[in-house]
Design goal:
11% strand
């Protein structure tokens, strides 16, 4: 495990990558909608780190070459983040290559890390991608549900390694559990898989497929890439192809909980009950931490009249994620059917607040973190 000597947290904005297992709940393959930020996606992954002349001119007047490694790192960070310079800001659907990230001056954690590595290497620094894993977190990406991962950068200096990250804490929403350096190929597979997930969320499986396939070709050992490709097949109803992808993910990473959780219902549907139960036991805590899974169980309980169980499950879902309208709508319905009017009114007020915020979104600023990938 990497033990960096310092964290850059001067500019604080929570950057999350999509990169996660998908749910078929409330998903339809009928026509693209809510498309992510339009940008050219390089077909050649070797292009992801390439800077253009505009970017080189910008940094050449701000980053001195004949200084210490630590001073070059400081200068690059200032050039990227200071409002009077590039003024990079977070964009929840902004997975871009280095040139596009520079042009837009915004992006998600993958885009930021790719640009940062490209600039650092341009100035002779040893920079590598670093995957950060924390307690699982889920959110909606258009019409699908994704678990989030995080990517940042570690740069070597004469005084030790420095982790460059915009997170306010060393982890997305909690304690850092695992941080490990990953290859360029691994990071690039994350890039293509990320955009593929965004396109799935926009109901564009045809646009998602080549990107998800490319991710598995660039880094065959990237287990999440196989999970996401499997999810595409599952959403299309091709359970044979989906199962093959999930099983490949487990060959690459036997403890990949997303693959285990996705395989269990496929085994159960094919009559392999013992195998399904074994996998379900492994993922019990993982699933119980997923508020969308809890809400799906609560929806079933509401349909069968198990109102108290549904309300209890929805309280747990809202404790994990209190800004999902779907959970609040279900909680209001359960409370009213139980005669718990005070709870129903409180949840209705929170739901109205969320809907008002969605109609008038706040502008994205460095230092603030919108909800989302």
């Amino acid at each position: 495990m990497l033990h960096p000597t310092a964290f850059f947290r001067r500019k604080r904005a929570a950057l999350l990558g999509v990169l996660g297992v998908l749910s078929a709940a409330a998903y339809s393959l009928a026509g693209p909608e809510h498309a992510p930020a339009a940008a050219e996606v390089p077909a050649d992954w070797h292009e992801l780190l390439r800077l253009d002349d505009d970017a080189r001119r910008f940094f050449s007047s701000r980053v001195p070459r004949n200084t210490s490694e630590a001073e070059r790192v400081d200068a690059i960070v200032d050039a990227l983040l200071d409002p009077g310079e590039l003024g990079f800001t977070y964009r929840e659907d902004g997975t871009f290559a280095a040139r596009e990230t520079f042009r837009r001056r915004q992006g998600d954690c993958v885009a930021f890390s790719i640009l940062l590595v490209a600039v650092a290497r341009e100035y002779g620094l040893v920079a590598r991608f670093n995957e950060v894993r924390t307690e699982p977190q889920w959110d909606r990406v258009g019409q699908v549900v994704a678990e989030f991962r995080h990517l940042n950068v570690v740069v070597r200096t004469e005084t030790g390694n420095v982790m460059l990250d915009l997170l306010p804490t060393p982890g997305a929403g909690g304690a850092l559990t695992v941080a490990r350096p990953v290859s360029d190929a691994h990071a690039f597979a994350m890039f293509y898989s990320n955009i593929g997930v965004q396109r799935l969320g926009a109901r564009d499986p045809a646009g998602a497929q080549p990107l998800l396939e490319l991710a598995t070709q660039i880094a065959p050992g990237y287990a999440v890439g196989w999970v996401n490709l499997g999810s595409l097949h599952a959403l299309r109803g091709d359970t044979v192809a989906a199962r093959a992808c999930y099983e490949r993910a487990l060959r690459e990473e036997p403890r990949e909980l997303k693959a285990i959780a996705a395989l269990a219902p496929l085994y159960r549907a094919s009559g392999e009950t013992a195998r399904a139960e074994a996998l379900e036991r492994k993922t019990e805590r993982y699933r119980e931490r997923n508020p969308y899974y809890l809400a799906s169980l609560a929806r079933r309980e509401l349909a069968t009249g198990e109102l108290s169980a549904a309300e209890k499950r929805l309280r747990r879902a809202l404790a994990l994620k209190d800004d999902e309208p779907e959970f609040l709508e279900l909680a209001v319905a359960a409370a009213r059917r139980l005669g718990h009017e005070r709870d129903a009114e409180a949840w209705s007020a929170r739901l109205a607040q969320l809907r008002a915020e969605k109609r008038t979104p706040a502008p994205l600023q460095a230092g603030s973190a919108p909800v989302g990938p």
